[in-house]
Amino acid sequence: MASSSGQKVVLITGCSSGIGLRIAVTLAKDEKKRYHVIATMRDLKKKDKLVDAAGDAYGKTLTLMPLDVCSDESVKQCISNVKDRHIDILINNAGVGLLGPVESISIEEMKRVFETNFFGVVRMIKEVMPDMKKRRSGHIVVMSSVMGLQGVVFNDVYTASKFAMEGFCESMAVQLMKFNIRLSMIEPGPVHTEFETKMMEDVAKMEYPGVDADTIRYFKDVYLPSSIDIFEAMGQTPEDIAKCTKKVIESSSPRFRNLTNSLYTPIVALKYADETGGLSVNTFYNLLFNFGPLMHITMSILKCLTCSCLRRRTISPN
Ligand SMILES: NC(=O)c1ccc[n+]([C@@H]2O[C@H](COP(=O)([O-])OP(=O)(O)OC[C@H]3O[C@@H](n4cnc5c(N)ncnc54)[C@H](OP(=O)(O)O)[C@@H]3O)[C@@H](O)[C@H]2O)c1
Question: Ligand 1 centre and the CA of 195: distance in Å?
């Protein structure tokens, strides 16, 4: 299936679930049919959820292709199967999480996270960018995270992979601008997807080899309950993130950084308010270890304020 003239070709990675699936469907169902979506996933056997959600758009404004961001061959094959290799908008969404005390995580597991979250994005950009440069046009969007801007305890390796990508993209953005190619980061806070479920399942199976009893206690009894509270109180939906992403790609001057959850703006600001890093490290320490009960109450209040009747979802950029 070829895109109709005037339609923008959008290729999205990791569309079997969550945010990627929702972005693909949102763009494919655009009322003015401005997009031809190439929704990719590493295992096409998982296509049913996407196909169901796409409805009539499937086979019209949405096509499916296999793509594993960890494989050079798969990336090359997928892009060479795109008509004229022409991609107007590349959305790098595929990603994996990793949670827990560093002592219990093998270097192999850490490499798997970097292979997907960092090298996966680099691989995609390397393959798509030369054609965008030739055409002097294109937009590359990267699904980063608030954790690409601010470290979060017990998310050390995941955070590092997102920081790596932020650094890579911040550097690339300058060169790409010279070729009229835009680069935008989307930085969600917690989002209710399988990501959260998969991480909690992994945690339930964890055995903590080599971790001392105090660290296990801080992780299980202090960090995990706070994390669940935060997800419940502040979590956005994949639809929220899809709407935000659509706004970013439709903007006449897309921003480089796009936090999707305004509740996180002050947290990120802490870091820039004190260049020594002391303010953010001490604040997070106190929030977790000294004001745990207060944090629980704050999250409960936030949860009430964001319940369905009072919900005021601020999708930034406003
Ligand atoms: N959920 C959150 O709280 C949150 C917050 C901030 C940022 N993010 C970011 O948002 C992005 C999407 O996550 P999500 O929340 O939508 O989670 P999700 O539902 O688990 O979706 C992740 C997607 O990435 C795919 N994927 C994993 N490894 C891949 C590979 N090697 N090649 C191709 N696809 C691969 C998964 O495919 P399979 O089904 O084959 O595994 C799945 O389609 C990630 O980059 C994540 O870091 C999530």
Answer: 6
pLDDT in tens, 192-219: 998 888 888 888 888 888 999 999 999 9
DSSP 248-261: HHH-SS--SEEESB
Task: Report the CATH superfamily, name and number, of domain 95-305.
Answer: NAD(P)-binding Rossmann-like Domain (3.40.50.720)
Ligand 1 binding pocket (C-beta < 6 A) is 13-14, 16-20, 41-43, 46, 68-70, 93-96, 116, 120, 143, 145, 188, 190-191, 193-196, 198
Using pLDDT thresholds of 50, 70 and 90, give the confidence band for residue 315. Answer: very low
Residues catalogued as catalytic = 158
With 0.85 as the threshold, say if the pTM is over it: yes
In this structure, which residue's CA is closest to atom 17 in ligand 1?
A: 195
